[in-house]
Amino acid sequence: MVLPPPDKRHVCLTTIVIMTSMAFMDAYLVEQNQGPRKIGVCIIVLVGDICFLIVLRYVAVWVGAEVRTAKRGYAMILWFLYIFVLEIKLYFVFQNYKADRKSLETVARKALTLLLSVCVPGLYLVLVALDSMEYVRTFRKKEDMRGRLFWVALDLLDVLDIQANLWEPQRTGLPIWAEGLMFFYCYILLLILPCVSLSEISVQGEHVSPQKMMLYPVLSLVTINIVTILIRGVNMVLFQDSRVSTIFIGKNVVAIATKACTFLEYRRQVKEFPPQDPAGIAMEIQQNSVPHNQTLPNTTTSLPEEPSPPREVIDT
């Protein structure tokens, strides 16, 4: 498959979001170490960033090339690579904060949470690039897609809020096994769930239908809406964690109710409206593919008119 020329603005925006978050994470890692160890950490971080930039130079261009198409394969690769590297750095930042119990730099820890809350969902929305999907022509379909993407971004914030409990200051710490389980559970969710959403968009192609994208809502219902309520409930009741976000608990309750109504409505629609015949599907695709200022030709068949017999000229 030959990709079109890359969108330079999209490539630049993707690179800026990724490298900004990586630079701040590097600054946290360097500042958390003192003496000769600080120089060693700085060298390791610079070498890692150079290797990451070499890979990013190619992947970001491929992502910019497919942004106007219906495929998001390279976007999934870039997301997986970004989260993989970011979470490794975040793990060492978290461990350094955990080792230094005396330092309660509330502003720096809150700034770290704010940085992740902006960059991680922001990069997902940039990779989807809804405004660049020229094949999504109708306003209603584009707004339905925007609503789906908003739920994904909200789920990412939910996962990041659970991770932030590990490095933001709290009165009582969690057991080691609970901290490790929470961190790597959130790590897996950040790796997989956005890739599932991108794959749903990519599989449907140019004739994308938000109503048929049901895989991500089902997975997020179980892994985020239900499980995170249990995690926050256990932290609040058993470990007396004062940082549990009751707002996100309410968000998940509302999401469970909303998705349950959506699933029931989807099943009712499937039962009431049987699948269309191939001719009807082809006509619908043709209607979606023509511009708004053009009309479809009349498809009704008409019998060919018989030619009128030639008139005989009568000589007078």
Write structural notes for this entry:
The protein is about 70% helix and about 0% strand. It has about 325 residues and is an all-alpha fold. Helix 1 packs antiparallel against helix 2, helix 3 (about 75-100) packs antiparallel against helix 4 and helix 5 (about 140-165) runs parallel beside helix 7 (about 215-235). The radius of gyration is 27 Å and the shape is flat.
Q: Biggest β-sheet: count, sense, barrel?
A: none
Q: How far apart, in Å, are the first and last alpha carbons?
A: 75 Å
What percentage of amino acids are in beta strands?
under 5%
Strand and helix order = HHHHHHHHH
Radius of gyration, whole Å: 27 Å
List the helices and strands and how they pair.
Layout: H1 8-31, H2 36-65, H3 73-99, H4 106-128, H5 139-167, H6 176-204, H7 215-237, H8 246-272, H9 278-289
Give a concise summary:
The protein is mainly alpha-helical and 316 residues long. The protein has helices at residues 8-31, 36-65, 73-99, 106-128, 139-167, 176-204, 215-237, 246-272, 278-289.
